[in-house]
């Protein structure tokens, strides 16, 4: 039975293909976002959750096209506000499985305050942060995770800011679950590949 719809019956046996939408994927050739999309689509059937009970919520940026490519419910929101909208949906519909899709610019810059608060409140959502260390959609401004000294259109003499990572933000607010450090050792995860990390 679907917890969201209350419809009787077992969850259908899904495959990766069931989670692929009919939309053309529009990322640059060779972009790592393709691998993340494929890993998530491959992992989704293992959750055993009906597609109508799954929602992907994104902000703005290359990663934020993600909801269009998933054959589930989705919401492409405004820059940096996906965690706030996901919080509201989780409060209204706690039975749904909600994923927040964000990038290093969307999640750690414009939406940094919203990311901090969704983590601090320990809202039951899964956040997938794509970190390419650059504002890719706007063609190359440096981001909060860009390397020190990174030369970009917005930093022609090199970035003066020290980078920080999403997992550091999670640690700042004592977020309880982090796929990048879920074994309690402070090191990388014991998983193999992105799909394993997503299952953490």
Give a short overview.
By secondary structure, the chain is an alpha/beta fold. Helix content is 30%, strand content 10%.
Give the helices and strands as they follow along the chain: HEHEHEHHEHH
Give the overall form.
Answer: globular
Q: Helix fraction?
A: 25-40%
Structural class: alpha/beta
What's the N-to-C terminus distance? 25 Å
Give the number of helices. Answer: 7
**Unreliable spans:** 180-200
Tell me the strand order in the biggest sheet: 2-1-3-4
Please report the total strand number as a whole number. 4
Amount of beta strand:
5-15%
Question: What are the SSEs and their pairings?
Answer:
Blueprint: H1 33-47, E1 54-58, H2 66-69, E2 73-76, H3 82-92, E3 97-103, H4 104-110, H5 112-120, E4 126-130, H6 166-172, H7 193-198
Helix pairs in contact: 3-5, 4-5
Structure commentary:
The protein is an alpha/beta fold. It has helices at 33-47, 66-69, 82-92, 104-110, 112-120, 166-172, 193-198, and strands at 54-58, 73-76, 97-103, 126-130. The protein has a 4-stranded parallel sheet. The longest helix has 15 residues, at 33-47.
Features of this protein?
200 residues; Rossmann fold; disordered C terminus; single chain; 10% strand; alpha/beta; globular
């Amino acid at each position: 039975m679907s917890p969201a719809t209350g419809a009787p019956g077992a969850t259908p046996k899904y495959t990766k293909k069931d989670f692929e939408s009919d939309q053309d994927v529009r990322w640059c050739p060779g972009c790592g976002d393709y691998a993340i999309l494929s890993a998530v689509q491959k992992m989704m059937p293992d959750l055993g959750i009906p597609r109508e009970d799954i929602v992907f919520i994104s902000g703005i940026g290359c990663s934020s096209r993600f909801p269009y490519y998933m054959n589930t419910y989705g919401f492409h929101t405004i820059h940096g506000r996906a965690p706030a909208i996901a919080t509201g949906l989780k409060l209204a519909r706690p039975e749904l499985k909600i994923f927040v899709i964000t990038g290093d610019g969307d999640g750690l810059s414009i939406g940094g305050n919203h990311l901090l608060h969704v983590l601090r409140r320990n809202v039951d959502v899964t956040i997938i942060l794509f970190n390419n260390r650059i504002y890719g959609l706007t063609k190359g401004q440096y981001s909060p995770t860009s390397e020190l000294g990174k030369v970009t259109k917005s930093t022609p003499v090199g970035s003066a800011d020290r980078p920080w990572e999403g997992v550091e933000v999670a640690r700042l607010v004592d977020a309880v679950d982090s796929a990048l450090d879920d074994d309690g050792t402070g090191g990388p995860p014991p998983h193999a590949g992105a799909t394993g990390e997503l299952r953490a």
